[in-house]
């Protein structure tokens, strides 16, 4: 209570001091406002825009302090005078610009003045609509000549003279910079606004003239106009930021301009490395936003007429495929022993180069339905290439070999003729396989192929999805075309397998017809084995060398041949009846020889010894071991019951016989041991 009593007078003094300070400050603001309004009105009448620009902003700022005093008549009167001055300034400035740059007729001879430059500074403080009106009227007046020169009925308005439009605006922009560059504030971006308005007008005018003369539009003319237009859009992106395309008029430009871009420079930069790249690959690709903010600002008008381009590409690709067919027939298949042998067909790279060119052209103009139409055409001719160039040129197989005798097939010279395909035909099959594999590009090896600078089907699909609108991405799917090329690969491998398989058939037939019961001693490998090995040594090195860039499919060939040959060999083993023990030993030796050759099949005849894939070795060992077990006989546990059943089906043996008949003559333990040792010596001698 004592403290409150003591400080009571101090509080009163503090309140009085604060009220006095506020009153003095308000009176000072009032003095400034009254004087400012008087000066503003005087300067406005004298068109002293430079002084007005600085004073007006200050008056507006001071007036903000009196919002709570608008109930006082004098304050309200001053506020109304400020508004009246602003309105008068706006009207006066617009009239000044109209006088200097009339809508009709020529410009004032004197050109821009300092008065108009200061008037623009005042417009920055006035209602934004004043500034917008100034910009609009100036640009309209600046482009009025363009509308006259390039009217729809003028010769220069047609597409073949589209360069003249862009040359005209370039001259106008240079002229503007020289004459009016300092008149408008930099943040108004007047040069860019003139260029943007020119683009809008040009797009409308071109659309109008193309609708009128649609029947005169040819592909070359359309592409010429598109090329020149997109070049111009690229130049705009180099010079301007595009800030006026979305921002309100008068907004300041960004301090750091955007990077210079060009729509013709495709983004082929390296992708993110490390884990980021792996994560990106796991996610669906999304199309990038166009780097050029002016992309399509004029060229959008060509989109309704793109059907002319699409139809042209359909025709051109059809002619290209026909040319590929004619060239193949004229030049013939790749020759064995040459660089072309087994290599990817040159027509494949030509096709994808053309695809890439078409895709870039179309995407520069539209990322909508025209890209989908182009994709459909790509799919059509990918299938035609697979059918006409690849599958259509595969050698035809024939199973008719009945005119050959067994004895002639086992002769080395005539046996070499058993192979159905010539070396050139084998080389052609490998070439077609390599081409289909290149198109498919399913392995890392394909990505490092000597032609990997071009494009494959998966990459083509990815690029199409990058360039098309996001909503249309799901409509791009080349899976069916990839399946078509996979079928070509499978058919090619099957042909190679059938060819070698057919070459070995006469030898297997001869094996099954040999008198194995009368074989008296075990010698070297039988003639039919020599014939089979000869055919393998003839075909496999050729196939391996021609599939050097696609080792994956050479391995598939080896596996498929082995899976076909071994069951056939086992089937013929069962036909070798009757057979003696010595005959079985000879067959066991032959089986071991074939097993050794099959294990060495992937690298047979090669100077570089390479270990066969484990998957392939497993197949050979499993299959040939089964053949060996068939020749070695039944298990001990099964012999007694099978021999008893066999005896019941045979007549009574003559006296002196041991009573135990079987398919093989039953040797004594000493004889069996001696024969096994001899067989081991023969095998070791061959190894």
Automatic annotation (TrEMBL):
Which domain of life does this protein belong to?
Eukaryota
Q: Enumerate the spans annotated as Vps53 C-terminal domain.
A: 585-633
Polar residues: which segments have biased composition? 662-671
- Give the record's membrane topology: Peripheral membrane protein
- Keywords per UniProt: Endosome, Golgi apparatus, Membrane
Q: Where is this region: Disordered?
A: 246-292, 649-675
Q: List the InterPro entries.
A: Vps53, Vps53_C, Vps53_N
Q: Which residues form the Vps53 N-terminal domain?
A: 2-328
Any Pfam family matching the protein: Vps53_N
Task: Mention one GO biological process in which this protein takes part, according to its record.
Answer: retrograde transport, endosome to Golgi
Task: Specify residue ranges for compositional bias: Basic and acidic residues.
Answer: 274-283
- What's the chief localization of this chain? membrane
Q: Where in the cell is it found?
A: Endosome membrane; Golgi apparatus, trans-Golgi network membrane
Q: Which GO terms describe its cellular component?
A: cytosol; endosome membrane; GARP complex
> Which family is this protein grouped under?
Belongs to the VPS53 family.
Name of this chain's protein: Vacuolar protein sorting-associated protein 53 homolog
The species this protein belongs to is: Etheostoma spectabile
């Amino acid at each position: 209570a004592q403290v409150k009593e003591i400080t009571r007078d101090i509080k009163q003094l503090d309140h009085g001091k604060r009220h006095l300070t506020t009153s003095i400050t308000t009176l000072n603001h009032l003095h400034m406002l009254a004087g400012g309004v008087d000066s503003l009105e005087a300067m406005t009448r004298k068109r002293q825009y430079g002084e007005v620009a600085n004073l007006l902003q200050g008056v507006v700022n001071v007036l903000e302090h009196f919002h709570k005093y608008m109930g006082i008549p004098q304050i309200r009167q001053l506020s109304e005078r400020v508004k009246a001055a602003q309105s008068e300034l706006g009207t006066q400035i617009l009239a000044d610009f109209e006088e200097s740059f009339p809508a009709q007729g020529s410009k004032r001879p004197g050109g821009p003045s300092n008065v108009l430059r200061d008037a623009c500074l005042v417009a920055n403080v006035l209602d934004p609509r004043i500034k917008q009106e100034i910009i609009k009227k100036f640009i309209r007046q600046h482009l009025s000549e363009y509308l006259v020169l390039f009217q729809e009925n003028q010769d220069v308005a047609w597409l073949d003279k589209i360069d003249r439009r862009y040359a005209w605006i370039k001259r106008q922009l240079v002229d503007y910079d020289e004459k009016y560059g300092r008149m408008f504030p930099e943040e108004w971006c007047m040069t860019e606004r003139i260029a943007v308005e020119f683009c809008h007008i040009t797009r409308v005018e071109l659309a109008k003239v193309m609708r009128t003369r649609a029947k005169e539009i040819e592909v070359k003319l359309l592409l010429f106009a598109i090329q020149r237009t997109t070049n111009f859009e690229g130049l705009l992106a180099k010079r301007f930021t595009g800030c006026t395309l979305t921002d309100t008029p008068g907004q300041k430009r960004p301090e750091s301009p955007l990077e210079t871009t060009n729509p013709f420079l495709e983004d082929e930069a390296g992708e993110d490395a490390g884990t980021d790249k792996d994560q990106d690959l796991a996610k669906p690709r999304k199309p990038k936003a166009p780097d050029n903010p002016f992309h399509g600002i004029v060229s959008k008008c060509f989109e309704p007429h793109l059907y002319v381009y699409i139809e042209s590409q359909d025709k051109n690709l059809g002619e290209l495929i026909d040319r590929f067919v004619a060239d193949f027939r004229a030049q013939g298949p790749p020759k064995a022993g040459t660089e072309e042998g087994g290599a990817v067909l040159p027509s494949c790279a030509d096709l994808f180069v053309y695809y890439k060119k078409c895709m870039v052209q179309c995407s520069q103009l539209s990322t909508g339905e025209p890209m989908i139409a182009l994709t459909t055409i790509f799919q059509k001719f990918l299938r035609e290439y697979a059918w006409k160039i690849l599958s259509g040129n595969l050698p035809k197989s024939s199973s008719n070999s009945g005119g050959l005798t067994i004895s002639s097939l086992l002769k080395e010279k005539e046996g070499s003729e058993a192979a159905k395909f010539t070396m050139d035909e084998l080389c052609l099959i490998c070439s077609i396989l390599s081409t289909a594999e290149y198109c498919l590009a399913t392995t890392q090896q394909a990505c490092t192929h000597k032609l990997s600078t071009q494009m494959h089907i998966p990459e083509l699909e990815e690029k199409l999805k990058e360039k098309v609108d996001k909503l249309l991405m799901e409509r791009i799917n080349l899976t069916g075309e990839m399946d078509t090329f996979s079928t070509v690969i499978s058919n090619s491998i099957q042909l190679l397998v059938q060819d070698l398989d057919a070459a070995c058939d006469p030898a297997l037939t001869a094996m099954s017809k040999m008198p194995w019961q009368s074989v008296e001693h075990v010698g070297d490998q039988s003639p039919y084995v020599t014939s089979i090995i000869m055919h393998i040594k003839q075909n496999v090195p050729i196939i391996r060398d021609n599939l050097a860039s696609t080792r994956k499919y050479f391995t598939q060939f080896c596996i498929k041949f082995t899976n076909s040959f071994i069951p056939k060999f086992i089937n013929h083993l069962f036909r070798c009846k009757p057979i003696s023990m010595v005959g079985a030993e000879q067959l066991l030796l032959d089986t071991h020889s074939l097993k050794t050759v099959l294990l060495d099949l992937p690298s047979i005849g090669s100077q570089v010894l390479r270990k066969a894939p484990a998957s392939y070795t497993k197949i050979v060992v499993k299959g040939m071991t089964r053949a060996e077990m068939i020749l070695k006989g039944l298990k001990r546990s099964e012999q007694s019951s099978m021999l008893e059943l066999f005896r019941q089906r045979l007549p009574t043996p003559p006296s002196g016989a041991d009573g135990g008949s079987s398919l093989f003559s039953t040797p004594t333990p000493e004889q069996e041991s001696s024969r096994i040792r001899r067989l081991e010596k023969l095998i070791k001698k061959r190894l």
